[in-house]
Amino acid sequence: MAQDTRERQALGRASAAALAVATAVLATVVLPAEYGIDPLGTGRALGLTALAGTGVEEAVPPPTGDRVAPVQAGPFALYPAEYKVDAREFVLGPYEYVEYKYQLEQGATMLFSWRADGDVIHDFHGDPEGQASSTAAQSFDKQPRRQADGHFVAPFAGIHGWYWENPGGETIRVRVAAAGFFTVAHEFHIDRTRRERAVRPLDVISPAGGEETP
Fold first, then answer.
1. Which domains, ranges and CATH numbers included, belong to the chain?
2. Considering only CA atoms, which of 88, 51, 98 is closest in space to residue 182?
3. Which of 8, 66, 84, 179 lies at 20 to 30 Å from 204 by C-alpha?
4. What is the model's pTM?
């Protein structure tokens, strides 16, 4: 019986001590920091009352501008417009070629995948903005390929993309899909025609995950 009494007394003392500590923390830290109530003056001394009343901060506005160029902050970048998506298919007859390029600002990123169902001559290159493409074009990848999946960061503003040529006598089909911060696509053919292709924003993708017909 005496032992039970001592245990109850010890438990009571521990509970009282815990309550006292909790009360002290409430008065010295929680009330000044959360509610600006500082009965002991400790919140002001510790700088905690300055935290009271800081609710949800005002949202930082996104970058603005006509050019879809990244605003870099270390490894993080924001753009003044949403990214676009695009997908095309080309049928190359014997010895025909096509060039397909996207307008990208310096530092802008593009993800891509492409497939050819035959051997093609391939060159991924860029034409700097405002310069004659015949003299200023820069090649980034001329490896023999039938497919590629990757990403590209534009080293300069201009149009960047692929040259595919069918080197043989059989028809070849080439499919390309891309997503990124480009604004328009340019298509060049063997007959020296040039077409400007619109690219699509995010709202063409349905909530269910399907994609609308362009």
1. 2-51 (no CATH), 71-202 (2.60.120)
2. 88
3. 66
4. 0.69
